[in-house]
Amino acid sequence: MTKSSLTSQPPHVASRDPRGVARPGSSADSEAADCLSAYQAELDYLVGSLRRLGVRSADLEDVLHEVFLVMLRRWDDYDRARPLRPWLFGIAFRVAAGQRRRGSRELLIEGWEGEYAGASPDEALSLSETRLLLLRALEQVPLERRAVLILHEVDEVSMRDIAEQLEIPLFTAYSRLRKARKELDGALARLGKGGNNGA
Amino acid sequence: MGPKPDKPLSDLARQLLVSERSSTESPALKERAVARAARALQEGQRSVGRGRMRGGRSAWGARARGGALAAAAALALAGLAAAGVRLLKDPAAEASVVPVTRPNLGPTPRAPVASSPVLTTPPSVEPPSSVASAPRARVAVPTVSAQAELTAPTRARQYAIELALLEPARSGIARGDFADALTALLRHRREFPAGQLAEERSALQVRALWGLGRVSQAEAAAAAFRQRYPRSALLSWMPQRRAPSP
Fold this sequence. Notes:
- Chain A is mainly α.
- Chain A has helices at residues 28-41, 43-52, 57-74, 84-101, 121-125, 129-138, 143-154, 159-166, 170-195.
- In chain A, 61% of the residues lie in helices and 0% in strands.
- Chain B is built from 9 helices and 2 strands.
- Chain B has a two-stranded parallel sheet.
- At the A-B interface, helix 1, helix 2, helix 3, helix 5 and helix 6 of A face helix 1, helix 2, helix 4, helix 7 and helix 8 of B.
C-alpha cells in the first residue's frame, strides 16, 4: 500500500521550530486557535473515524468534544512535520476505547435502527444504508484490529506509520490487519445474507 | 519490512471502505461541535458536559483567558453566525407532511421485479459532472398515519402504503431532485425497514446516490445490493462496476 498521501500540512497548522518549540512571538493563545482551526477543518474525518470506531450517534457530540479537549492538551506535542490525520486518529481511537472501557453500551445489531431515530434529513444522508451496513460489520471486528484496518484501508496510512501511531510492533500491526480483513469479510457475508432488517 | 497479509479484502468490503473516504457528516452536527469547542476555549472549560472526562492541566485554562484566544474563539462563532448557521435543529426545515390519500386497498399482487412500479423511468446512466445544485422544491411526503390507523394491516394494504411512500422518491429521481428522493427513501426505511418494497428502495437509493454524483457511494451501495439480491434486475441500467480507485 502506498504511504499516506496526507503529508502536506493543512494551511491551518502553523509552522514552528523543528524542535517543537514555539517560535518567538507566537503565543499559547494562537496555538489554541490553531488547534481549533485544525479541529474545524478535520471534523468530517474525526466524526467519520469515531463512527467507524463504534461510537453511536447519541454519544457522538460528547465524544467528539472529548477528542477536541485532548487535541488541545496535546497540541504542543504534535510534530508538524508529520501528517495530521494519523495523529488525530490515534486520539480518537484512545478516546473511543476509553469510552468503551467506561461501560458505554455496545452497539447491538438490532439497535442500529435507533441511529435513524430523530435524524434530520441531512444527518440521515450521512447514514445511508450502505454506510450502516459497513458500520455494523465493523462493529464485529475487535477495536484494536479495527483501528489498523481503518487506518490502512480508509486512511491509506503506511503500516509503519500505523504501528508507530498505535504504539505496537510492526508485526503485530500486520497480524491485526490480516485478522481484521477476515473478520470484516465474514461479517459482511453474514449481514448480506438476511442478517439485517431491510438493507 | 514486516510480513504481508495473506488474503486481500473482498471487493464489497474494499468498495465500502473506499466510499468512507468521501463520507461527509451533517453540517448541523459540525456547526454545533465547533461552537461548543469555541465556547470551551472562551470559558476555559476542561470537562465534557456529562462530567465523564477529567480536565487537563490548568495552564492552558489560564492562557485561554488571554485576549488573542478569546478573539479567535469569537471569530469562530462569528463565522458561524455570518454563514447564517442555525445551531439548533429547525423543525420547519424538515419535509412538509400532508395526509396520504388512502389508496385502493384491493388485492394487489406484488409486481415482478423486472417491471417494478417504482422504477419506470429509464435513468440516464451518466453521472452529473457536478453535484446537482438546482433549487430544491418542497416535496410533499405522505404521512404514514394511515399505517397507524390500521389495527391489522393486510399485506396488500402495507404494499399500497409502501408504494405511496416510495412515489416521491421515484418522482424526485425522475425530475432530477435526488436529495429529496433520498429523504423520501429514508422515510420509507423508518416506517418499513423490512418492507415488501425494501429491494426497490435499495435500488432507488443507488440511483439517487448516482444522480447526486456520489459515485463511490453508489457503487458501494450497488455492490451491497447485488450481494443481497443476486437475481434482481433493478440495477441493470448501471454501467459495469469500475475498479476501485487505489
